[in-house]
Specification:
Oligomer: single chain
Largest sheet: 5 strands, antiparallel
Distance between the termini: 76 Å
Radius of gyration: 25 Å
Order of helices and strands: HHEHEEHEEEEHEHH
Number of domains: 1
Mean pLDDT: 88
Structural class: alpha+beta
Strand order of the largest sheet: 1-3-2-4-5
Number of helices: 7
Strand content: 15-25%
Helix content: 40-55%
Low-confidence stretches: none
Length: 207
């Protein structure tokens, strides 16, 4: 073997060693460690008291952009075990948060009491909530309503199937495809309508 071949072989060997070491190191990083650094949900607010000034800290749903105060009757507030907290508009978007944060355990989850007489519905723990599932009746971000009530009698009076949070969450995941298609269609229609309106305004002003 001449010098050129020897050096080439040595270089290839060194490259293989470095690559192998890097691959081994990459394999040693657990997926939850990688996602904690590079994942989509590592920028959440750490909040030890999410209920304090809730709407100031969580004014809009991070998944759909809807104003949570307007949808106070279906909003959810999730505090994970590391105090990372998210406020969503609905159980639909709460289910997205729980799916993406698979390596965080929820410490507290609250939901708006749809049966309250208050204009801004108070939050209750989901463990104490009674969800009324009504197929075919429009809800928030879903064609199948899933509203929560503190009073089981009010939940029963809706005529829907009354379940706990876990079953309501399961129903939300089962509806995800249908809900997402409906949301995408509705938002596309709204964007088209707004674009048409803006075009007409420009034509009127001559810009």
């Amino acid at each position: 073997m001449n010098r050129r071949e020897l050096l080439g072989a040595a270089s290839l060997g060194a490259l293989a060693l470095i690559t192998g070491t890097r691959n081994a190191a990459a394999k040693m990083v657990p997926p939850w460690v990688w996602t904690a650094k590079h994942g989509l949900v590592n920028s959440m607010r750490k909040d030890k008291n999410p209920l304090e000034n809730e709407f100031e800290k969580y004014p809009r749903c991070p998944y759909c952009g809807m104003a949570r105060k307007k949808w106070s009757h279906t909003r959810h507030l999730i505090q994970y075990d590391d105090d990372s907290t998210e406020g969503t508009c609905s159980i639909h978007c709460a289910s997205l948060s729980l799916a993406l944060n698979m390596d965080r355990n929820p410490k507290n989850i609250w939901v708006g009491d749809a049966g309250s007489e208050a204009k801004i519905k108070p939050l209750i723990k989901v463990d104490a909530a009674h969800y009324a599932l009504i197929m075919g009746k429009m809800g928030t971000m879903t064609p199948n309503r899933k509203w929560a009530y503190a009073d089981p009698a009010k939940a029963k009076a809706t005529g829907g199937k009354v379940v706990g949070f876990d079953e309501a969450l399961q129903a939300s995941y089962e509806d995800m495809g249908q809900s997402t298609l409906a949301i995408r269609k509705r938002r596309a229609e709204k964007r088209a309508h707004m674009a048409k309106k803006m075009k007409m305004m420009k034509m009127k002003t001559g810009n």
